[in-house]
């Protein structure tokens, strides 16, 4: 069929995605980035060919965000986006004009291919599937290797199944809405970079060494890293606020892949967050204590019923007939206020762990690194993201302030615990 | 290489620890730099000023519209508000119009500004029912445009690496401005019937002397260097 005659698909934004276009600022948008570092330099022409082949398979990913009278919607792109060289600034904010044209960027720099997603399009799991499929197609074309469609690599020749395009939040919203979390949490502060430069500091750790330490405390790797992060945040707050009574609770937001709880293979957002943390006014915590607290809080929070209760209020709001008929411009104002009041203010920092990345055996020799980088929060300077690949754990800490406080605390703490930490950064 | 303060392993060739900022140095190890994980920092990106310009435009528009409305309400026609509106539009043209463009080349904007000035003068002339535009305002505006545009073009495209050439250009412009003063006095006589009192000789002499001084400084390198040493900023 003539591509110009192809009817472009469009779809409503999923429930989690609704907030992101409304919360856009001139110098901030909610983005994340998944990158693959290959053993050879990236060939842009081949990467473009691979993208052209893969894009039609993901009509909910290669999209633009358009505004209707009452809601935003995703519209399939008439042609795949163009690959572009990576800039000195990763996760450069997407403006309203940018997302109206294309909400995904495919970038290359030396051996690295990176895909930057506006969060309305998909979540980390969906983004990883897209990036894996693109990387596999690129390697097929560039290295002539035959890569099977397993381990999350999708076949670009197959049409997208309907199950990948559904909004799973609506299907799994329950009758009970959980109350919102307390908003009085510790917020990290710092002198902002005058040019809004986003520092990305990557710590590379030995996965086995981390896992053995987590195992010794009887917790998962995510819980262990969260405990380390909490410990670092408590240290920073103690330095800033010597009077214990004035300290505030420290909480870490952990995105939970809801596909694991409810099943389904949607490529849209299907993620909710669990907030875990401690109150420093109760006393000092050891790392072992923190690990146990985080472990048990995660066990309590991350259940199908509890997660459903967490995202049900949002689905109920979306279903409310009065909210439905509010014009988009007014809705934007309301959603912006909601985002500022409850979106980010319930946690000190976010830690997103995509876990151990699995790739087809045929693909693995060509891939050196797989990284996830979350953009900074709108009102707080830090975010942390983690992936593991071939025995190495990649911890990316982003920051839009001058002084590297959190990453210094986090990585030096790991060094004191006997872990070898290699640090890379995009420092100016 | 490890950071002596943090103990973390660092990428090759890095100048300072990204965590604590401690300078990385080992006298016995000379390492080739690893490829940087991101392209080199290229400074701040261009920031759009369209929001601020929109506000400034509205601030210009408010008195303009208010004056026109008040004038229309009081006199049923545009009387004094025409002068205010013309002045505001001229001010906006000169001060704000270039800011809407990313490349603000004065060579392009100066003729536009002078055209705006000439139009405003034409409006004043027609409104007051007098006939000084063609014999006086137009040639004077043209003279200013000619001198100014020549200076701008030469400063922008002819200076190049020989930075002292601006002395010749400005010196020449001063001499030409002196000549323009004589022309203005002559045009005043033609347009308004004023007698030739030769007042224009005073600015002519002063400007010619200043122009010659700049040219001499431009020609004489030791003098230029001596003055630069004493007056550099």
Strand line-up in the sheet with most strands of chain A: 10-9-11-13-14-8-15
Proportion in β-strands of chain A: 15-25%
Report low-confidence residues of chain A grouped into runs of 5 or more.
none
- Examine the coordinates and then state which fold CATH places here, giving the name of the CATH topology of the largest domain in chain A: Chloramphenicol Acetyltransferase
For the largest interface, the chains and their residue counts are:
A-B, 34 and 26 residues
Q: What structural class should be given to the helix and strand makeup of chain B?
A: mainly alpha
The whole-angstrom Rg of chain B is 29 Å
What is the overall pLDDT average of chain A? Answer: 92
The coarse overall form of chain B would be: flat
- Count the DSSP helices of chain A: 13
What is the domain tally of chain A? 2
Helical/strand content category of chain A: alpha+beta
Shape of chain A: globular
Order of helices and strands of chain A: EHEHEEEHEEHHEHHEHEHHHHEEEEHE
pLDDT average of chain B, as an integer? 88
Give a quick rundown of the structure.
Chain A has 428 residues and is of the alpha+beta class. Chain A is built from 13 helices and 15 strands.
Descriptive notes:
The complex is a heterodimer of chains A (428) and B (233). Chain A is of the alpha+beta class. Chain A folds into two domains: 8-172, Chloramphenicol acetyltransferase-like domain (Chloramphenicol Acetyltransferase, 2-Layer Sandwich), CATH 3.30.559; 199-308 and 345-425, Nonribosomal peptide synthetase, condensation domain (Chloramphenicol Acetyltransferase, 2-Layer Sandwich). Chain A has 13 helices and 15 strands. Chain A has a seven-stranded mixed beta sheet. In chain A, strands 5-6-7-2-12 form a five-stranded mixed beta sheet, with helices on one face. The longest helix of chain A has 20 residues, at 124-143. Chain A is globular. The model of chain A has no long low-confidence stretch (mean pLDDT 92). Chain B is mostly helical. Among the domains of chain B are: 1-34, no CATH class; 132-228. Chain B is built from seven helices and one strand; from the N terminus they run E-H-H-H-H-H-H-H. In chain B, helix 5 (165-192) packs antiparallel against helix 6 (201-219). Chain B is flat, with a radius of gyration of 29 Å. The two termini of chain B are 44 Å apart. The model of chain B has no long low-confidence stretch (mean pLDDT 88). At the A-B interface, strand 8, helix 13 and strand 15 of A face strand 1 of B. Strand 15 of chain A pairs parallel with strand 1 (9-10) of chain B, so a sheet runs across the interface.
């Amino acid at each position: 069929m003539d591509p110009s005659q192809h009817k472009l698909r469009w779809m409503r934004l999923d429930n989690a995605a609704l907030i992101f276009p409304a919360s856009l600022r001139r110098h901030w948008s909610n983005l994340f980035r998944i990158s693959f570092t290959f053993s050879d330099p990236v060939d842009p022409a081949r990467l473009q060919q691979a993208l052209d082949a893969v894009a039609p398979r993901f009509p909910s990913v290669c999209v633009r965000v358009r505004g209707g009278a009452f809601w935003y919607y995703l519209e399939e792109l008439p042609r795949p986006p163009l690959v572009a060289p990576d800039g000195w600034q990763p996760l450069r904010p997407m403006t309203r004009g940018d997302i109206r044209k294309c909400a995904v960027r495919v970038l290359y720099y030396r051996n690295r291919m990176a895909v930057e997603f506006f969060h309305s399009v998909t979540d980390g799991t969906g983004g990883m599937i897209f990036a894996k499929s693109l990387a596999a197609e690129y390697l097929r074309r560039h290295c002539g290797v035959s890569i099977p469609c397993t381990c999350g690599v999708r076949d670009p020749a197959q049409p997208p199944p309907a199950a990948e395009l559904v909004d799973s939040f609506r299907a799994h919203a329950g009758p009970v809405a959980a109350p919102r979390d307390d908003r009085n949490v510790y917020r990290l502060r710092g002198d902002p970079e005058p040019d809004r430069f986003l520092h990305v500091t990557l710590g590379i750790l030995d996965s086995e060494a981390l896992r053995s330490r987590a195992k010794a405390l009887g917790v998962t790797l995510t819980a262990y890293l969260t405990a380390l992060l909490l410990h670092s945040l408590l240290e920073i707050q103690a330095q800033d606020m010597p009077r214990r009574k004035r300290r505030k609770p420290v909480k870490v937001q952990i995105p939970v892949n809801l596909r694991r709880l409810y099943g389904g293979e949607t490529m849209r957002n299907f993620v909710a967050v669990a907030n875990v943390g401690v109150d420093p006014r109760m006393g000092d915590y050891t790392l072992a204590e923190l690990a146990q607290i985080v472990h048990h809080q995660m066990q309590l929070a991350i259940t199908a019923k509890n997660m459903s209760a967490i995202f049900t209020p949002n689905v109920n709001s979306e279903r409310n007939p009065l909210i439905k008929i509010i014009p988009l411009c007014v809705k934007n104002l309301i959603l912006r206020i909601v985002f500022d009041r409850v979106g980010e203010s319930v946690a000190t920092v976010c830690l997103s762990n995509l876990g151990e990345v699995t790739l087809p055996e045929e693909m693995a020799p060509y891939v050196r690194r797989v990284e996830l980088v979350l953009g900074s929060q709108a009102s707080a300077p830090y975010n942390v993201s983690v992936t593991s690949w071939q025995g190495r754990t990649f911890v990316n800490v982003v920051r839009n302030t001058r002084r590297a406080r959190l990453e210094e605390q986090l990585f030096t703490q790991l060094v004191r615990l006997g872990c070898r930490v290699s640090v890379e950064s995009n420092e100016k | 290489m490890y950071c002596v303060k943090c103990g973390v392993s660092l990428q090759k060739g890095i100048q300072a620890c990204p965590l604590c900022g401690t300078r990385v140095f080992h006298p016995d190890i000379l390492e080739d730099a690893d490829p940087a994980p991101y392209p080199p920092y290229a400074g701040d990106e261009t920031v759009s000023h369209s929001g601020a310009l929109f506000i400034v435009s509205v601030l210009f528009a408010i008195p303009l519209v208010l004056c026109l409305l008040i004038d229309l309400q009081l006199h049923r026609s545009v009387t004094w508000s025409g002068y205010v509106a013309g002045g505001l539009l001229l001010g906006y043209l000169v001060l704000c119009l270039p800011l809407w463009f990313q490349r603000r080349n004065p060579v392009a904007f100066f003729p536009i500004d002078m055209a705006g000035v000439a139009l405003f003068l034409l409006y004043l002339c027609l409104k007051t029912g007098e006939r000084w535009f063609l014999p006086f305002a137009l040639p004077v505006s043209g003279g200013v445009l000619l001198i100014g545009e020549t200076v701008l073009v030469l400063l922008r495209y002819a200076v190049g690496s020989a930075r002292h050439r601006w002395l010749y250009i400005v010196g020449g412009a001063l001499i030409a401005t002196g000549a323009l003063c004589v022309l203005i006095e002559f045009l005043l006589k033609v347009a308004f019937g004023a007698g030739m009192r030769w007042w224009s000789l005073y600015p002519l002499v002063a400007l010619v002397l200043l122009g010659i001084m700049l040219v001499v400084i431009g020609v004489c390198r030791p003098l230029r260097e001596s003055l630069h040493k004493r007056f550099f900023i």
